[in-house]
Structures are given as C-alpha cells and as structure tokens.
Amino acid sequence: MRVLGVDPGLTRCGVGVVEGVPGRPLTMLGVGVVRTPVDAELGLRLVAIERGIEQWLDEHRPEFVAVERVFSQHNVRTVMGTAQASAVAMLCAARRGIPVALHTPSEVKAAVTGTGRADKAQVGTMVTRLLRLDAPPKPADAADALALAICHIWRAPAQNRLQQAVALHTAKATASKGRTA
Amino acid sequence: MRVLGVDPGLTRCGVGVVEGVPGRPLTMLGVGVVRTPVDAELGLRLVAIERGIEQWLDEHRPEFVAVERVFSQHNVRTVMGTAQASAVAMLCAARRGIPVALHTPSEVKAAVTGTGRADKAQVGTMVTRLLRLDAPPKPADAADALALAICHIWRAPAQNRLQQAVALHTAKATASKGRTA
Lengths: 181, 181
Description:
Two copies of one chain form a homodimer.
Chain A: E1 2-7, E2 12-19, E3 27-35, H1 42-60, E4 64-68, H2 76-95, E5 100-103, H3 105-113, H4 120-130, H5 140-153, H6 157-177
Parallel strand pairs in A: 1-4, 4-5
Antiparallel strand pairs in A: 1-2, 2-3
Helix pairs in contact in A: 1-2, 3-5, 4-5
Cofactor (chains A, B): Mg(2+)
InterPro entries (chains A, B): RNaseH-like_sf, RNaseH_sf, X-over_junc_endoDNase_Mg_BS, X-over_junc_endoDNase_RuvC
Keywords (chains A, B): Cytoplasm, DNA damage, DNA recombination, DNA repair, DNA-binding, Endonuclease, Hydrolase, Magnesium, Metal-binding, Nuclease
C-alpha cells in the first residue's frame, strides 16, 4: 500500500510517501515540502500548492492520500490557511479518484509513538526509526507528513480497501449529482 | 467591468455575475447556486464545487472574482467547510490569472444597503433594486453572491486595474518561486 501523507499549510506543506503493510517494515519513497511565498496573493499561493501536490501525485502514484484533519482551537488566521491548503490537497486527490483519509494530530502521534500527547521531537525520532532513516526528516512538517502516511497504513487494511472501492464508485455519482442551477 | 461574486459554502455555493461601472446602472448576467450532496465525501464535494465554478468562469469570462472573506467567529464546522469551498473558488480564478478580491460580509452589506449590519432581507431587497430584478434572487446565497459582485464593482476602479495587472504579472513569478524541495 502506497500512501502520500500531507501536513497542510500555506507557507510549508509537508509531503511524504510511504509504502508498506501492517506488521512489515515500511519504506519511505520520498519526503519534502511544498513552499509558497508568504507575500504572494492567497489565490496564487493555492495555485502553487496545487502544482506541488500534483507533482507528488504524478511522481509517486499513491493509492491513498492521508491529510491532517484541521481543528480551529489554534490561531484563527493559521487555521484558515491550513483549511484552505488542505482543501487543495483533498481536491487534487479526489479529482484522480484517490481516496482521501483525514487523521487528527492525536491519532497520528498515538500511531507512531504510542501516545497522543507526544511532542514534535518524539514523532521525528519514531518516524526516523520506523522508516530506518539516518536522521529525522527536516522540517517538522516533512516528518509529520511521513507520520500521517504511517498512521494510515496501520489502519485496518480491510477498511482501506472498502474506502478505495467506495471512492472510485462515488466519484462519478457525485459528479452527476453536484449540479449548477 | 464583469465580476463573478462567490458566496462560498460546501452545501450551497452562491454565484452571481454582474457587469457595470460605478455610477451607472448595473446588469445581472447570471445567478445560481453550486450544490454538493451533504452525504458525499469531502474531497468529492470539493471536486463538484471546482466543476461548478469552472462552468461559471467558462460561460461568463469574468475579469474579477469577488469572494466572501471567511471569519471563524461562527460555528467551527461550518467555518472549515466555508474556508475550504472558498479555497476552491480562489484556486479556480487564480489558475486563470483572474484577480481575486476578498470582501467581508460587513463591507458587502454596507456597499449595497448603506449599513454593515443589514439583514438578509435588506440585502435581497437592495440587490433586487440595484439590478432591476422582478424578485429577490433565491436562495439567500445567490443574492449574497450578487451583492459581493456589486460591492466589488463599486470599489475604486483604478485599484481594480492595478490589482488586475499585478495578478497577471505575479502569476508566473509565483509559479517559479513556489518550489518542491
């Protein structure tokens, strides 16, 4: 199973591709960050994120895309940008019929460290260990994207297969139902 | 000046096209709602909104797109959906090099009714009057989209021309600056 993890953000959007199945060693296929200039207009930043995500989808052909679920308990301005960046990532995946899964930060931390309250350093350490890397991926957004992908792979495989089938089936149904009046 | 106003939402995304210049009677060229099924997956809903917005851009070729600026003082879940729908609208416009302007609900209400605290009915009444329609557009999202377009037309035309030039110029610059590392 090949998963692209996306840690959404307007300035830095972490991306990481992991391949594997539960109970076997995992393999990192790529990791990086899609960046957009802080001083650019919002619409143009979203276009830059779209291009970046499309490049990662083209290159790695993931079967699933896992995106961090956005909450609004944090800084209002940051959350809006994060929600907008995540929308672009979800749009890019869904357009290709790739199922999108959302995982909360706590779920991701619990998956890779055993506790939902782990800090950035702990997540980085475990991602390094689980993917047998020489050093923790930098910046933290990149490590978080890999953790998202790992979290997704370790969910019940049957559930993933079901979601994949449903996504492919409903892509067409939604297209015909969503109409312009 | 031809403006597409977008009142973003996941379930109902209001769209309205108005043509005109400040100080002259305005003309409505089209109004409607892009709907997506509530029970569909989020990624697929965003794809449906993208298709809907693209259709409106194809049909009406607006020079500007005006989108309601999203705030998070309201219901958290609604705001996330609104932010995500607005991201898709901004993305569609920016991809074509069409400048995107954001206006707050208060700015829009003040532009068409004279007060930033006007209610939905008052906005509907003034939109009907200003566009010389037989009845207020329904649903309210459609009327709000027209109000957004009117608000944008009534901003300083010089500022709009400047923004248009900057958007076209920076579209390429942003594409080359936003890189995947």
